[in-house]
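Entry 12.
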Amino acid sequence: MASGDPSPSDDERWLVIDGRRWRRTDPALPDDLAARLRSHLGRARSAVRTGKRAGDDAAVASARRRVGLAKTGLGERGPRWWDEEVDVRIGRATDAVAELDGLAPPASGADAGGEVNP
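Predicted 3D structure (tokens):
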């Protein structure tokens, strides 16, 4: 890893399900930032399903772009997080949240951390 820390093991980099490797979320991301990205990811995946059911190709494309932004912010796509400095990775995640907030603002009643206000 570029930060000078010992390189993470394969178990820390990859999740294996049914013999297929999936990149894990960057463990260096602050919990609140990762939670916001996961919230956007879930909402975007739901929008993909909704767009497909409606036959709305533009909505599906827009939602898939949001899925890609969220997964890149989480470190699950794009540059391998273990090859970069932590500040670069957190900057990319922060930029992804900012762009996602602009494309699909959190629902009213949810604060910036994604928590629902009572």
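Annotation: The first helix runs from residue 10 to 13. Residues 17 and 23 are 11 Å apart (CA to CA).
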